[in-house]
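Attaching the record inline, Q. Sequence:
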Amino acid sequence: MPILLPSPEHLKRHPEQIPDAVDKSLALARDGEDLRAFVTLFDERARHEAERVRDALLRGEDLPLGGWIIAVKDNIAIKGQLLTCASKILDNFHSGFTATAVERLERAGAIVVGKTNLDEFAMGSSSENTIFGAVHNPVDTTRVAGGSSGGSCVAVAAGWVHAALGSETGGSVRQPAAFCGIVGLKPTYGYVSRYGLVAFGSSLDQISPCGHSCREIFDLMCVMSGVDKMDSSSADVPPPVRNGGLRPLKRKLRVGVLSDCFGYPGLSPEVEACVLATVQKLRDAGHEVVDVSMPHVKYAIPIYYILATAEASSNLARFDGARYGWRDPDAKSLADVYEMTRGEGFGPEVRRRIMMGTFVLSAGYYDAYYRKGQQVRRVLLDEMQRVFRDVDVMVTPTTPTTAFRLGEKMNDPLAMYLSDTFTAPANLTGIPAVSIPVGKDRDGLPIGMQICGPHFSEELILQLGNEVEHIVRNAAR
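Structure, as predicted:
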């Protein structure tokens, strides 16, 4: 879909137009409210920021993201603004501080126009588990946007913002990016500060950007990544150097195709054919393509749902009605406060995952499930590192299918969980991965291809992603 705003480059050259562009972004979001991408729009705050950025650029200040208009998922904190996580239990809760990633983007000149819809507490693969109503895919409004960062990806795909922030625990930006036909990056674990991100699975979560191109994603990463004293899990690795933007690859790469994914029984033939055709185009462009295998990757989904739910049950224990957020008004005792607030405040998917996580952490099952899950996670990491000793990058489909219909999988949680089959391994092993749109199926629905790399290889996988974008564009002419 076309970008409906002036480009960031244009706005930086003509800063006097920034306030009008922000007004247009807000108007587009309101006109498209049926898609349910946004939960809050920052009219006054965004206009104030637009004027601040305009004046700074006119004074000659160097703002690398001056004029960028962005959206932020509503599980990422912005001081003084609602932070609901699309949950009744945080209804009307306002954040007391701003997430480091957002703070860095705003300091560089980006303007946040609003907070976006999501699966409650980022738990879902369709952005249907939300108190604000299911997010609709702008390509086909009868289809899901993907989840849990569906609102952020829709705001980008619909052309209302230049880029957006989501969060990743098992594929929550790459999956909706693939469904909506845009680019979504899961950075290396620890490369972007998690300070200000409401925790779901702390060893898996990562604030992640989505945008219209790999070049835009690279520009965002140059600003928001790097160590943060407020996040002990952030990595002391310097951010990429922008230096004029994302540069072309200087050499041909050895590209591994994960053969285990292409034998997956749930993989759509159209998705498989489209991704393999793109791989062939990379071979034609001079890259060496080889098959690679990870025998334990088939266990990624069960491992993920053991570890993620265990961490969720721990992280969500703080939402009890005693300290902040919504409290059931009919509670008569402390036990009532806990039971009634959590029972009514959390939606069914969140309650399901808390119960699963509590079970796998319980005394009788900890060794059989949680400990074993961590052991297999280590085996998966060892396999991943072996693969990257032999190849520069690895390619898979992003999702087994294109966007499914609204409501199609709501009563089948296992089918919904399998949407993350190809994305969860990157979160379990902490590696970076990017989803690139590479074609469409017979219904005109976007197909995504995933490029994975070793830890802290964001620039490399985005460079190859940029080349894929050119290949796909040229093939479409």
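The chain has a mean pLDDT of 96. The chain has three domains: 8-224, 254-297+376-476, 303-366.

More tomorrow.
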